[in-house]
Amino acid sequence: MPEMLLDVQGVTVSFDGFKAIQNLSLTVEKGSLRVLIGPNGAGKSTLLDTIIGKVRPVSGDVRYLGQSITRLPEYKIATLGICRKFQAPGVLDGLSVRENLLVACKRGKGVLASFKLGAAASERARVDELLSLTGLQGKAGMLAALLAHGEKQWLEIGMVVAADPQLLLLDEPTAGMTAQETAQTAELIRALAGKHTVLVIDHDMAFVELLDAPITVLHQGQVFREGDLATLRADADVMEIYLGRPKETPHAQA
Amino acid sequence: MNRSAQTVLIGVAALALIFAPLYLGAYSLTLLGRVLALSIAAIGICVVWGRGGILSLGQGLFFGLGGYALAMHLKLMATAKGELPDFMVYNGVEALPWFWKPFVSAPFALLMVLILPAAAAGLIAWLMFRRRITGVYVSIITQALVLAFVTWLNGSQGLTSGTNGITDFQMFLGINLRGESVARGLYWVTLLILGLCLAATALLLRTHFGAILTAIKDNENRVRFLGYNPAAYKIAAFALGGLLSGVSGALYTLHLGTISPAMIGVTFSIELVVWVALGGRSSLIGAVGGLILGNLAKDKISSAAPDAWLYVMGGLFVLVVLVLPQGVAGLLNHRRVRRTVPSVRREVKEVTDIA
Amino acid sequence: MDPVFLSGQLFTGLSVASLLLLTALGLALSFGLMRVINMAHGEFLMIGGYLTFIAAKLMGPGFLWLAFPLAFVGTALLGALLEFTVIRRLYGRPLDTLLATWGISLILQQAARQIFGSTGVPVTAPAWLSGAVVVHGGVLDGLTFPHVRLFVIVLSALVLGGMWWLLNRSPFGMHVRAVNQNREVAASLGVNTRRLDMLVFALGAGIAGVAGVGLALLSPVNPTVGAAYIVNAFLVVVVGGVGSVLGAGAAALLLGFTTALAEGLTSSSLAQSIMLILVVVFLQWKPKGLFPTQSRALEET
């Protein structure tokens, strides 16, 4: 049996009584690429929030490499090797592209380790590598705030992979991208899988098709189906939750 | 303005300051020295607010701790051995309170000038940032704390001399503070300390620490989920800001020969912040320059037209914020002007993020 | 402790809390709705006080009938002007707003100093408010409730009730709550958010003006009276939970009583310090205040 990297066990997340996730269980194998889809409000982003510690479940447990991370502070979860790309590009506007990547790939994250001028040779090399990975070589000195939307998305992907995390969580990485950029991103993600374990959320079926990976469908905070794209497309229930009348009442605040 | 012109300008200003005792009259020199001492606090505000995005309205608390730590020593030096400071006698205090005793030692007092403000700032920051209190909450809490400190000082006649403050100093480190050449010496010492603090902070902000601080201001969550603990960085920055305020307070006390609660209160603390805003909150030179020029202007205008001064200052507050959000330094240095993202938009993004 | 003294302290605490509450209500509203920290809010209180003084000069003993509308309308108009000229231009920059409004408070204080002088101007309460209710017999023999303080307490209870009704039962309140939860959605549903901001801000200023009437009845009005209240009023907002009228009420009572009790036990200045430090400790336990607003949109700002 392949080694489990992430093991979400019966997790329930509640926002003021509204259950965004209900008793959800999910395992992700080491080195795999997995796609999460589901209609709005299915709990996809909330699941990622729970894994990285942004929201805390009322019950259940999130285990990573056999260790429970449910109660760890967020930054410790991140240093264990779980890194997430947010839906809205979360780049550091006041720093240059190069500095953004440097902040992301620094090994020592403590305050004392930060009192150092310049970067180590290995860190500089890593930043160069990331610049070419994301195609931002020409803009290394530019303030991140001045990048185009798609470039920001790539920069953030670069930041997320910078420290070589084991588990990558990508929340709609192609939002706002052109068809061509989307195809390039899909290629990039497939290249990352294998070395990293990748969990991707996306709505864009064309993109999901390009990723060519096993899919988990979430619905009303629970795992609804798992399978490949062809099987799911043939599944009448899956089609209904996507195309039919929404069964859940939209939640005003979420 | 380009970089080399800036360097030349700073160089000229530095030379003018170094040789000021040779061409300035006694009154102007004292005033300038006092303002230079004050501007060390501006460095702290630049780090904490300009870089860290944390607006503290309580810098007077740390300024006061530094000032009082030194004043206690100076008061004991001005009191004959075995006797009590005059204000304690007036207030019927019979024995020297325990926390006064170690201040007989000059090294201890000097150490406390550094440790007390830094530790107090660190503690307050720890209490706030570990619970993720941010933004205007921090401003309100720090303002409340400085008010609490001042209120306590005012009410503790016998322990701290209350509203009158501690005054009447004579000797420090074997030097008679009323001697003739003291004013010049003190001026140069102040300038030296200011220069050292500026250089050290500028260096610090160029390290990775400075980048992380800016990053936290831009997007605290992104930094957190990259594996950094933002609270630790904010606490460190806040403690540094406290330390610089404390040094500033101690020097200011030496210059003025007194320290009292009225000097360090809510108004003082917010005024510091405004001069920094005027000069440019995210530029060290801007912050220090703004504070120096602002205070010099205050002296001139408030002595020429006392009634007009508050109108001028109030008007400046409004004007700077409306017209010059990055201060004069931001105007001179376009590259550093940061795009301000209205927070309303950010809120909306957060909402969609949760779906 | 002597029960008469203790009850007296609590009663005084209640009347102080009432004024604090009225001051904080406007702050809680504008902070909740616009994330605006208005440091000039205390000056509305001061202006309300001076307008009462003017009303008393003009009308003689029956001045309260003029004082209330004058103070409310005067400060509300000033509030609207401030919102229109300054605050509106600083949306999304709460820290900058704080500095700008502090500047405005300096200007208003100085103006008051030049017009009315720096010493307090006294307002004589009308005859029907000058007496006191005195308890006779029992353990509380000798306890007095001055009419003026009772009046202030009733006044703030009425205003609080009115505000609660306005926010929770009226169409205006529905709009306010909608904008509070999600400004953009409310705007897209046809709420004129800009106008609403101005109305709410003016309303908050007006309530502070009404509080100024109460203040003038209790003690002479001087140019820095607003500054004396502002820090505590902000603490009420923070402790109560941003934008919560109920929270502001509870927090004002809590702070008023704590101060009054601590004052009874120690000195007035120590009591003030203890109270301020207790608030910081309280925030360790409940960083979002007593009644946190349930909108997740606010969390990250």
Keywords:
heterotrimer; A: 254 residues; alpha/beta; Rossmann fold; six-stranded mixed beta sheet; four-stranded antiparallel beta sheet; 34% helix; globular; C: mainly alpha; 2% strand
Task: Summarize the structure in words.
The complex is a heterotrimer of chains A (254), B (355) and C (301). Chain A has nine helices and ten strands. Chain A has one domain (31-55, 73-243): Rossmann fold. Chain A has 254 residues and is α/β, with parallel strands linked by helices. With 355 residues, chain B is mostly helical. Helix content of chain B is 73%, strand content 2%. In chain B, strand 2 and strand 3 form a beta hairpin. In chain B, helix 3 packs across helix 14 (284-304). The model of chain B is unreliable at 335-355 (pLDDT under 50). Chain C has 301 residues and is an all-alpha fold. Chain C has one domain (3-119, 127-226). In chain C, strands 1-2 form a two-stranded antiparallel sheet. The model of chain C is unreliable at 294-301 (pLDDT under 50). The interface between A and B is large, with 47 and 35 residues.
N-to-C span of chain A: 38 Å
Helicity level of chain A, as a percent range? 25-40%
Q: Can you tell me the overall shape of chain A? A: globular
User: Which chain pair has the greatest contact?
Assistant: B-C, 58 and 53 residues
Low-confidence stretches of chain B: 335-355
